[in-house]
Amino acid sequence: MSGSNSMMGEGSWISWFLGLQGNEFLCRVPLDYLEDKFNLTGLETLVGNFSQAFDLILDPQFDNEDWGTVDTSDAEQLYGLIHARYILTTRGVEDMCLKYERGDFGSCPRVYCKGQKTLPVGLSDLSCQSHVKVYCPRCQDIFHPRTRCALLDGAMFGTSFPHMFFMQLPNKRPQPPKDKYVARLYGFQLHQKALNPSQTPEEEPKNSGPSLSQSTFGALDNSQASCPPWRRFNGI
Ligand SMILES: [Zn+2]
């Protein structure tokens, strides 16, 4: 954190916030976008203490001493929600494209994606639902980021960003992977059946007659014994 501390008194709140370790996925939202009230529509109800949070974001000479008693989390949440809107605009996509091509968002961990660069994505457009994930445009799957940015709120990027990115920049979309991993044992390809999980007693048909599991569970009725509620929930 020592590197980011030196920036605290030197510039705006945004510079300070973007300079914090773990915030490298975020891009700089331009002042004219922030000051256009249209871009803030509806955010007043989503962020506590909206006006103070907004003043803090626009502070050109942010000093932690002045704001010492103020909780900056509202400002961080508000900036994140504005950021999610900004990166869907043409300018925002261009800004994020520079970071994408620089590799700021990391690469896909799948071997056959061959180091394909990823883009950040949220699983929800609402704050505090889940942390940010990264989307691989080659295998079209999502992964946990392998950097400190993994702690950022997914709502700072939203659920649409990577798809808007490739909508606006279709020539950046990579070809799907040509190869797929094949499981082999001593050189022989495994049959699909061998790769399926083996049946557990809980998954046996209910009407299969008396079984060990029934006698083991004694007083429990048949449905509880064959599929306890927690087991059913975990299976979803
Ligand atoms: Zn991939």
Find the count of extended strands (DSSP E, 2+ residues).
Answer: 5
- Number of helices in the DSSP assignment: 11
Which shape, going by the Cα principal axes? elongated
Count of domains: 2
Spatial extent as radius of gyration: 25 Å
Specify the biggest β-sheet: 3 strands, antiparallel
InterPro entries: Casein_kin_II_reg-sub_N, Casein_kinase_II_beta-like, Casein_kinase_II_reg-sub
Biased composition (Polar residues): 208-226
Region (Disordered): 195-228
GO molecular function: protein kinase regulator activity
What tags apply to this protein structure?
single chain, 236 residues, mainly alpha, N-terminal domain of TfIIb, two-stranded antiparallel ribbon, 11 helices, disordered C terminus, binds zinc ion
Summed up:
By secondary structure, this protein is mainly α. The chain is built from 11 helices and 5 strands, in the order ααααααβββαββαααα.
Description:
This protein is 34% helix and 6% strand. It is built from 11 helices and 5 strands, in the order ααααααβββαββαααα. It has a 3-stranded antiparallel sheet with strand order 1-2-3, with no helix packed on it. The N terminus and C terminus are likely disordered. The structure holds zinc ion. This is Casein kinase II subunit beta. It holds the Pfam family CK_II_beta. Belongs to the casein kinase 2 subunit beta family.
